[in-house]
Design goal:
The strands form 2 sheets. Strands 3-2-1-4-5-6-7 form a 7-stranded parallel beta sheet, with helices on both faces. It is built from 12 helices and 13 strands. The chain is of the alpha/beta class. Strand 6 (148-151), helix 5 (154-163) and strand 7 form a beta-alpha-beta unit.
Length: 371
C-alpha cells in the first residue's frame, strides 16, 4: 500500500518536520510504501523572523523527502503533482498549520482529486497561533474542498466541526521521536524549571517571568529558557533585570538541535508551558513521553494531555500568581515523584498505532475525497 505525505521535512526544522519523519517511520513499520514531498521554501522572510529554517542537528530525523514545493511558485506545485501521480498512492496526506498555505493546499487538493487520488488534511492547528487578516476566510476556502481531516486534539476537532459540521474528523496523538533515558541530577541539586521552544508572544514567557519572584521567595531554583526568540531578547532580559531574578535565569537563545533535547529535558524537574492560547503542544507530549511532569495553562487542547494532579498541574492562562502558586506547590509538596510515577505507567506514546489505524480506515473509505 502506498501513501504520500506532503509537508515540511528534513532538512527543514521544527515540530511538524519531526512529526512527518515519525509518521513516515510509523507507516513503514506497518508495511506501507511512503513518499514524502517537502518544500524548497516555506515562507518569505517577512513571515519567518528566525534564523535560516535549516535543521543544524547532528541527529537527523530524515525521511528522504523530495524538496519540490515553493509556497510562492505555482510551477513547483505542478511538479509536485506530477511526482505524486507517478508514485500512485492510495492516499495523499497533506500537513496543514497556517492559512498562508491556503491557495497551495487548495490547488493540490483539487488537482489530486481530478487525478483520482484520495486526499485528506492533517491539521496541526485550525487557526494560526497569531491571527492574520482574512485567516478565517482562507480556512473556509481551503477546508470546504476537503471531506476528511485528522487533528491532534479534541479542541481542534470541535473548532473544525463548528466551521464545517458535515466533515469527518479523526483525532490522533502526535508522534514523538526524541527520548531521554533517565532523569539526570543537577550537579548542585538545584531544582530546575524548563521553558522550551520558540519564544513567541502566545507562549506566555512574560507570565512565567512575572511569576518567578514569588516562586524564588519560597523555593531555591533556576529557570532555563531554551529556544529561538522570535521577539527581541532584550524585552525579556529587561524584565529579568528589573525583577532581580537574573542570577536564577539562564537563557539559551538559539534553536536547540535534536541531540541536545534529551539531555536538556533530563536536567529539568518540570516543564512549564504558560501559553496564552494553544491548539495542542508537541512540546508537552515530548515532556510527558520522556517522564517529565508539566505545569501548563488550561487552554486549547493542553488539558487533554496535561491531566490535573496526575502528570502535572493546570492554571488559568495569563495569571502569574496562579502559576507561581502551582510551581511552589509542585516543589514543596514533592509532586514530582508522584507525577513521574504516574507517567511511567500511564502515558505510553500510542501515536504509531493510532495514526496507522486511521490511515488504514481512510484508505478503505471511498468518501475520502476532495470536493
Amino acid at each position: 500500500m502506498k501513501v504520500t505525505l506532503v509537508g515540511p521535512a528534513y532538512p527543514l526544522r521544527g515540530g511538524i518536520s519531526h512529526h512527518v519523519y515519525g509518521l513516515q517511520q510509523a507507516l513503514i513499520s506497518r508495511g506501507y510504501e511512503v513518499q514524502v514531498v517537502s518544500y524548497r521554501r516555506l515562507y518569505p522572510k517577512l513571515l519567518f523572523p528566525g534564523t535560516a529554517p535549516i535543521d543544524p542537528s547532528r541527529l537527523k530525523l530524515d525521511p528522504s523527502a523530495q524538496p519540490i514545493l515553493d509556497s510562492l511558485n505555482p510551477l513547483t506545485w505542478r511538479k509536485a503533482l506530477q511526482t505524486v501521480k507517478t508514485f500512485g498512492p492510495e492516499l495523499v496526506l497533506i500537513q496543514w498549520w497556517h492559512p498562508f498555505f491556503a491557495f497551495l493546499v487548495t490547488w493540490l487538493g483539487r488537482s489530486f482529486r481530478k487525478g483520482g487520488l484520495k486526499c485528506t488534511l492533517e491539521c496541526h492547528n485550525i487557526f494560526p497561533h497569531e491571527r492574520i487578516p482574512f485567516d478565517r476566510a482562507l480556512i473556509r476556502f481551503t477546508f470546504s474542498r476537503f471531506q476528511y481531516f485528522i487533528t491532534h486534539s479534541l479542541r481542534d476537532r470541535e473548532d473544525l466541526l463548528t466551521l464545517f459540521p458535515g466533515k469527518i474528523v479523526k483525532v490522533t496523538p502526535l508522534l514523538i521521536n526524541i527520548k531521554t533515558s533517565k532523569r539526570e541530577s543537577h550537579p548542585t541539586g538545584l531544582k530546575t524549571i524548563l521553558f522550551f521552544g520558540v519564544v513567541r508572544k502566545y507562549k506566555g514567557l512574560e507570565i512565567l517571568l512575572r511569576a518567578m519572584p514569588k516562586v524564588l521567595s519560597k523555593v531555591e531554583c533556576e529557570l532555563i529558557i531554551a529556544g529561538e526568540f522570535y521577539e527581541p531578547v532584550s524585552h525579556y532580559q529587561k524584565m529579568i533585570d528589573e525583577s532581580g531574578i537574573g542570577p536564577h535565569v539562564h537563557i539559551e537563545s538559539r534553536y536547540i538541535p535534536n541531540e541536545e533535547i534529551g539531555e536538556l529535558f533530563g536536567r529539568a524537574n518540570v516543564l512549564v508551558l504558560p501559553y496564552l492560547s494553544a491548539s495542542q503542544s508537541g512540546i508537552a507530549q515530548l515532556a510527558l513521553v520522556n517522564g517529565l511532569p508539566v505545569i501548563s495553562s488550561r487552554t486549547g487542547g493542553l488539558p487533554e494531555v496535561v491531566i490535573e494532579n496526575v502528570n502535572g498541574l493546570l492554571v488559568p492562562p495569563g495569571d502569574p500568581d496562579a502559576l507561581a502558586g502551582a510551581i511552589v506547590s509542585f516543589f514543596t509538596e514533592n509532586l514530582e515523584a508522584v507525577f513521574r510515577g504516574n507517567l511511567l505507567s500511564s502515558f505510553p506514546n500510542e501515536g504509531t498505532a493510532s495514526i496507522g489505524k486511521v490511515i488504514e480506515e481512510m484508505v478503505g473509505n471511498n468518501s475520502v475525497q476532495t470536493s
